[in-house]
Specification:
This protein is mainly α. It has a single domain, classed as Four Helix Bundle (Hemerythrin (Met), subunit A). It contains four helices and no strands.
Length: 128
Amino acid sequence: MPLTALIAVLTVLLLLITSAIVGRARGRYGIQAPAVTGHPAFERAFRVQANTQEAVLMFLPTLALAAWLGDPRLAAAFGAVWLLARVWYAVAYLRDPARRGPAFALGMLMQIALLLQVLVAMAGAAWR
């Protein structure tokens, strides 16, 4: 499961990067904490961070379960695509929020694929 662990570590790195982007935007646009509104570029950065945290909350447990109960290589492949989709999503959202849809859809598809992998593995275990 080293590949799955790598995906998990890279996901945490993504969280750190989105946090740093928000901090940088706060300084650049003079947004004092705890404010979460102000310059549109700051608001986009803040939403990217919040949306990524929300997605990771579902992703990491599902990735871990898929790797543990199912095929770890398949879980890592779905996880890698999910991670790339989230990076794409962040870049697209920061540039033009209207263009984030395809990246969001791909990430959601990978989340569903991981969840299905878990459910199939659980069903298979129940029938043994």
